[in-house]
Specification:
32 strands; Beta-Lactamase; 6 domains; Complement Module, domain 1; 883 residues; alpha+beta; 6-stranded antiparallel β-sheet; 25 helices
């Protein structure tokens, strides 16, 4: 009906205007009465944004009120069946108190009392808080005025019962008082929960809208909202590490520091050392203590100076079924309820989802920064391509490599725009295969990139698929220089191999210039890829260019008049001192050069018809310092042009050829010099030997004129000594090397010669035990020969007096690095009083002196005859001229 609609609109408009709860009662056309409650929801600016409404049927209460007005009898009929609680009171002492007279079943249920227990009792005894509740004053007012009054919805609480009540008080005609009321606890709790939800939602909106600088800043803000939501004064948040069973202080509310006097605040707590506040983790549910000062079995106390706690509530925060933190609030004016715990849990659950998101976002941001830093700072050109081959992201190195700007490339250009046309089909195939199976296309390969200027670059590319996408990541490395270096290295290796092949004949004494020329031509042709060529030298006398390889390496060339190929071809220098024709430029200017359009070169014009066709040629002069000594010429490399690299390679071969020419010159000079010196040395030894032979002959003639036997003996000894030295010079000029003689052969000859002078001693037997191939230089041979001569002549003269038969044994042995010479006899031996080291005998003095000269040792053995043993090493050559 319109009047009801107008009533509804007026009430609703008033709620929006005032921001206060609204309530209307009206009767429907059906006869039913409705009590309609309107609760405003406020926005952040304090204005009403919406209204929550709830309705309940009060028809029975209205009928009761009507019946009470009409007839007490009729009232009794519906008394017991009413859903509302009804209590009837007698008035005593002129309204100073009211005694229970009756109450219905609904009152028994609501108040949790029995009729027989309260009838006859004062209302103040049954409900000791009725005066504080405000209902007692209403009773007294209605008793006095007789007018019904309504006591608004208010919470009643005493030690026995607690609940929200709405009372209507009437005075019966009999003078009794009647209270009709309903238990609105559930409705009020619902309303309270709605209001709490509204506050929590507003808190969550503010938290979501808060521009936190960090997770810590967000938690500080969220803690303040939690304190406001729960009407608390202080609070905290502790992170919890389930693996370590530890709490880590995250933040305390600002109010705590105002009341806390602890200077050394602990930030880490082990779970097993915590008291009641740790129960939220141990039990995994909210913990509420509304009388914190009261003794409790789980409390362990808190440090002196801690902020005082009166009421306390703590809740666990779960993330992925694990407790990750606890939130505690304290010192609410009223008691904490399960609704407070629920609201705080819902708020912090939402907050922690934001925290988790923030952590993930931070990790993602850090990951993106790291990825971006890596992407931009790898030092390698990188790009990301989507499935359609569009480049979505490139780094600065890619820009530098290609010459295009980022704004020109990203989301505009395809990767196919950057590669040589011949490379694209292969790369497209890889692109398709990689998206079917990442292992079916090569991850690394070489290709060719084309930059903005059209310059082609050799590229080493690595392609990988980005996880869970169809995008691919390109990494490109410019290997142009490396590839060129690799080619240069291969070229260098080939050059070194060529030089190694040349080196062997270069140093061999068995090769000549022609042999070396042929090897150099082979290697030069191989390095340059030439089909034709020759290597020639300059005749130092005539200055002709002498070619010894042309006929062998270029059989198609016919340069002789008689059609026979000579071993050597000469190109004469002109009368003007210059070389003419094709080779002239290189020889006249002493400069290496090549020409890949030889047919246009004036030097080629006028070549004989028999000459091979020259398309390209390369010439390198061979120089020793500035002296022109030869030339290397190459021609017609199939399928290529000559290059600077070819020219440099051949120039290096030319340097080796110059060394070969120089070495051969030196060899010729040395050989000539050695021949001259050898001839001179042989002549010297021959003349020394002849001179000594003359002296020996003079001494021999002198011996025939001397009658004194002693003098004759002395002359013979000196003659033997001179003969021994002369024989060494004879052996030297007869030897091949003029440096050393075969000492064993020398001792045999010397023994024969000595015995020739003592032909009367024919009964003496000589046993020679001489090692073969003992060669000694002149430094050692002369003193050793004199020592042997002295020992042998002394033995012959003195060991066997009276021409007695005897035996002389001579041994020459090489023992390790020493040589041993032993002369033994089985004669009479030396007199016992003779010390051979200190004697007046000239022969023994000479022996001791010569042994010292060769740095040897001498020992005497007289056990059986006489035996002298000398050990020595060959003396090193000592320069005669000292400065």
């Amino acid at each position: 009906p319109k009047d009801m609609v107008d009533l509804w609109d007026d009430a609703l408009h008033n709620v929006f205007k005032t921001g206060e709860n609204g309530r209307i009662e009206f009767e429907l056309p059906s006869g039913a009465w409705i009590d309609w409650l309107m609760i405003p929801l406020l926005s952040d600016d304090g204005k009403v944004s919406s209204v929550i409404t709830s309705a309940r049927n009060i028809t029975e209460r209205k009928k009761m009120e009507e019946n009470l007005k009409n007839s007490e009898a009729e009232y009794r009929a519906i008394f017991e069946g009413s859903k509302s609680a009804v209590a009837i009171f007698n008035v005593i002492n002129d309204g100073s108190n009211f005694v229970f007279k009756d109450l219905n079943r609904s009152a028994e249920f609501i108040e949790q009392i029995k009729r027989e227990d309260v009838i006859g009792k004062k209302v103040t005894d049954v409900f000791p808080s009725i005066k504080d509740f405000g209902l007692f004053e209403i009773f007294q007012s209605v008793w006095k005025t007789g007018k019904p009054e309504k006591h608004p919805v208010t919470i009643y609480q005493d030690e026995r019962i607690k609940g929200w009540r709405e009372n209507y008080v009437y005075k019966l005609p009999s003078g009794d008082m009647v209270a009709v009321y309903d238990d609105l606890t559930e409705i009020m709790q619902y309303e309270e929960e709605l209001e709490k939800n509204q506050v929590r939602l507003k808190s969550m909106v503010r938290i979501l809208q808060y521009n936190a600088e960090s997770v810590q800043d967000l938690l500080d803000y969220a803690l303040n909202e939690a304190i406001t939501l729960s009407d608390s004064k202080i609070g905290y948040i502790f992170s919890y590490n389930e693996d370590k069973k530890q709490f880590i202080l995250n933040n305390w509310s600002e109010g705590v520091m105002d009341e806390c006097n602890i200077t050394d605040i602990q930030t880490v707590y082990d779970l097993d050392k915590t008291g009641i506040w740790g129960e939220a983790v141990r039990q995994g549910k909210p913990i509420i203590l509304n009388d914190f000062q009261k003794e409790h079995a789980l409390k362990k106390g808190y440090p002196e100076g801690h902020a005082p706690l009166n009421k306390f509530m703590t809740i666990p925060i779960f993330s992925s079924d694990k407790i990750v933190a606890v939130v505690g609030v304290a010192n609410k004016k009223t008691n904490y309820t399960e609704t407070d715990a629920l609201q705080l849990e819902l708020l912090m659950d939402g907050v922690w989802k934001i925290v988790d998101t923030k952590v993930v976002e931070k990790a993602l941001e850090m990951s993106e920064k790291r990825y971006k830093a890596i992407f931009e700072n790898t030092g390698t050109a990188m790009a990301i391509s989507d499935e359609n081959m569009t480049l979505s992201l490139v780094n600065d190195e890619f820009v530098d490599l290609t010459g295009f700007l980022k704004k020109e490339i990203e989301n505009k250009m395809l990767w196919t725009d950057f590669f040589a046309k011949k490379e694209v089909p292969r790369m497209k195939k890889y692109h398709r295969l990689r998206r079917r199976d990442s292992d079916s296309a090569p991850r690394n390969y070489e290709t060719i990139l084309k930059d903005r200027k059209g310059t082609l670059k050799d590229i080493y590319i690595t392609v990988t698929m980005l996880p869970e996408t169809n995008n691919s990541l390109f990494s490109l490395t410019d290997i142009t220089e490396k590839k060129q270096s690799r080619l240069k290295l291969r070229k260098e290796l080939k050059i070194n191999q060529a030089l190694a092949k040349i080196y062997v004949p270069l140093i061999s004494p068995l090769t000549n210039i022609q042999d070396i020329s042929e090897v150099i031509l082979d290697e030069a042709a191989s390095l340059s890829g030439s089909r034709h060529g020759f290597v020639a030298i300059i005749d130092p006398e005539s200055k002709d260019l002498v070619n010894q390889t042309l006929s062998k390496k270029m059989p198609l060339v016919d340069v002789s008049n008689d059609r026979e190929i000579p071993e050597e071809i000469r190109f004469s220098i002109g009368s003007d001192g210059r070389y003419h024709g094709l080779l002239g430029h290189c020889l006249n200017n002493k400069e290496a050069f090549y020409d890949n359009e030889a047919k246009k070169n004036h030097s080629v014009l006028g070549l004989p018809a028999e000459y091979w066709s020259i398309d390209k040629f390369l010439c390198v002069p061979v120089l020793i310092e500035d002296e022109l000594v030869g030339e290397i010429t190459l021609a017609n490399p199939p399928g290529k042009n000559y290059s600077d690299e070819d020219l440099l390679a051949v120039k290096r071969l030319a340097d080796f050829f110059a060394l070969a020419i120089q070495r051969k010159r030196y060899e010729e000079q040395i050989s000539k010099s050695l021949n001259e010196k050898e001839l001179l040395l042989r002549e010297i030894h021959h003349r020394v030997k002849n001179n000594m032979q003359i002296i020996s002959s003079i001494l021999n003639l002198q011996s025939f004129t001397v009658k004194d036997p002693n003098l004759q003996s002395i002359l013979k000894q000196n003659q033997s000594r001179i003969k021994s030295m002369a024989m060494i010079h004879e052996k030297l000029y007869q030897s091949k090397n003029l440096v050393e003689i075969d000492f064993s052969e020398y001792l045999r000859s010397l023994t024969t010669d000595v015995f020739y002078h003592y032909s009367d001693k024919t009964k003496i037997e000589v046993d020679l035990d001489l090692d073969e191939n003992i060669k000694l230089n002149i430094e050692t041979s002369i003193p050793c020969g004199l020592i042997y001569t002295e020992l042998l002549t002394n033995t012959i003269q003195h060991a066997f007096p009276g021409f007695k038969e005897g035996k002389i044994s001579v041994q020459l042995k090489r023992i390790d690095d020493h040589i041993m010479l032993r002369v033994s006899d089985n004669g009479i031996g030396l007199p016992k009083n003779v010390n051979f080291r200190e004697t007046s005998s000239l022969g023994l003095q000479l022996i001791n002196s010569l042994v010292k000269q060769i740095e040897g040792t001498i020992e005497l053995d007289q056990i059986s005859g006489t035996s002298f043993t000398i050990q020595f090493q060959e003396l090193k050559y000592d320069d005669r001229i000292k400065i």
